[in-house]
């Protein structure tokens, strides 16, 4: 009789907790008419997961899954994102007549997918996490079944998302063909001794394109404005932070570890994408009249700023990008929460006279807009400052100058609100 050793499940405790809760919520949905109970369970799960994350360090599943300080940090962002989304959803989905029990389950499943992505030490786990996250967000984008815009958002997101997943798989298969492994660290060892070939360059570009799609970097951003506008506002807030953070988490892991040997080759491509992303996001946001579309373009622009953290390849720039991501989560969800709170239309003209009718809300919106612009003394300024300083120290002063110019442009459309 063969003794099969059981894997140590301590590192995956948070993911297991979230997955079990999501499955239980699907069953409880049949019993509870008041979906607030389900929301409460979702938040309680998040609290349990927050408690178990710090003690879950280690590797499991034959080294395919790793829980370390890097993944822990991103998991904290995902959990904050989940809790804030559940809180802003409570009243909102009632008003939108989209109060389905699976709403909270899908939020939990999407979060579990993001956590898997952050902890992936193997490209197969990375892909599994990505699909779990993506499939859940496709459904959430179209959860307002009676709304044609929501349906359109889900279809667009699904078609383009499926396309990017195919590119990622193709890139992974090319890497596997060259190195005979999908382990990120073994790929890194293998690439240290091999010359740069066309196949390697192609696989790196395919993987980069797939990640750029997830973080909505130009020119792979075309889905974001339509999906952000059509999806329920609470889901737009969730998608603007969660999948973006997960995309940056895997980007950091794959490019810093697996492709570190060919950094000189991927840096120029990333610089091009970063500049284009900042340009597209900031310039197209200027002409938007719909607040959700404007925030969509602003989120594209922020992806450009965050890429500046990945380009230098230093520990300091990576840390600055991670801090910026956390600050961005709060300021972006804050802005969307106010859009939900006011129950006004989505056009910018609907917000006229807000300082007279709702002075406190107008003041909060002003703080979030200042923070997104990066005006001192807000957290957004501190985040941008750290990020730009790290890039300057690494010798990318010219890139920071471009970013600052685009930041100045962004002040116009933020402060117009």
Detail the topology: elements first, then pairings.
Layout: H1 13-28, H2 36-52, E1 58-60, E2 65-67, H3 69-95, H4 102-119, H5 123-141, H6 148-179, H7 184-193, H8 198-214, H9 224-230, H10 233-258, H11 263-285, H12 291-310, H13 315-342, H14 354-357, H15 359-373, H16 379-393, H17 397-416
Helix pairs in contact: 1-2, 1-4, 2-3, 3-4, 3-10, 3-13, 4-5, 4-10, 5-6, 5-10, 6-8, 6-9, 7-10, 8-10, 9-10, 9-12, 10-12, 10-13, 11-12, 11-17, 12-13, 12-16, 12-17, 13-15, 13-16, 15-17, 16-17
Characterize the structure shown.
This protein has 417 residues and is mostly helical. It has helices spanning 13-28, 36-52, 69-95, 102-119, 123-141, 148-179, 184-193, 198-214, 224-230, 233-258, 263-285, 291-310, 315-342, 354-357, 359-373, 379-393, 397-416, and strands at 58-60, 65-67. The chain is globular.
List keywords for this structure.
75% helix, mainly alpha, globular, single chain, 17 helices, 417 residues
């Amino acid at each position: 009789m063969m003794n099969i050793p059981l894997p140590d499940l301590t590192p995956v405790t948070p993911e297991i907790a979230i997955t079990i809760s999501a499955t239980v919520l699907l069953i409880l949905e049949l019993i509870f008419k008041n979906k607030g109970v389900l929301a409460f369970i979702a938040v309680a799960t998040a609290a349990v997961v927050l408690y178990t994350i710090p003690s879950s360090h280690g590797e499991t599943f034959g080294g395919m899954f790793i829980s370390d300080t890097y993944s822990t940090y991103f998991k904290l962002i995902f959990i904050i994102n989940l809790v804030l989304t559940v809180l802003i959803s409570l009243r909102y989905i009632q008003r939108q007549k989209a109060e389905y029990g699976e709403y909270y389950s899908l939020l939990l499943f999407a979060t579990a997918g993001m956590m898997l992505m952050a902890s992936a030490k193997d490209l197969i786990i990375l892909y599994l996490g990505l699909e779990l996250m993506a499939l859940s967000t496709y459904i959430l984008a179209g959860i307002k079944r009676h709304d044609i815009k929501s349906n359109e958002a889900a279809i667009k997101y699904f078609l383009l998302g499926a396309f990017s997943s195919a590119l990622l798989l193709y890139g992974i298969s090319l890497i596997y063909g060259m190195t005979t492994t999908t382990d990120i660290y073994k790929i890194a060892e293998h690439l240290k001794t091999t010359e740069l070939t066309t196949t390697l360059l192609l696989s790196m570009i395919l993987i980069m394109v797939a990640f750029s799609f997830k973080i909505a970097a130009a020119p792979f951003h075309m889905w974001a404005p339509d999906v952000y506008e059509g999806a329920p506002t609470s889901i737009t807030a969730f998608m603007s932070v969660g999948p973006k953070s997960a995309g940056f988490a895997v980007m950091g892991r794959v490019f810093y570890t697996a492709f570190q040997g060919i950094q000189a080759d991927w840096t120029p491509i990333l610089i091009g994408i970063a500049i284009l992303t900042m340009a597209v996001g900031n310039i197209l946001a200027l002409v938007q009249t719909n607040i959700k579309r404007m925030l969509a373009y602003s989120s594209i622009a922020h992806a450009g700023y965050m890429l500046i953290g990945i380009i230098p390849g230093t520990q300091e720039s990576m840390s600055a990008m991670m801090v910026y991501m956390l600050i961005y989560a709060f300021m972006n969800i804050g802005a969307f929460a106010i859009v939900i709170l006011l129950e006004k239309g989505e056009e910018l003209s609907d917000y006229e006279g807000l300082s007279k009718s709702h002075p406190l809300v107008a003041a909060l919106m002003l703080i979030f807009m200042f923070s997104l612009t990066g005006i001192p003394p807000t957290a957004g300024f501190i985040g941008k400052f750290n990020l730009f300083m790290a890039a300057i120290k690494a010798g990318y002063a010219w890139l920071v100058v471009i970013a600052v110019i685009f930041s100045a442009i962004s002040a116009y459309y933020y402060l117009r609100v």
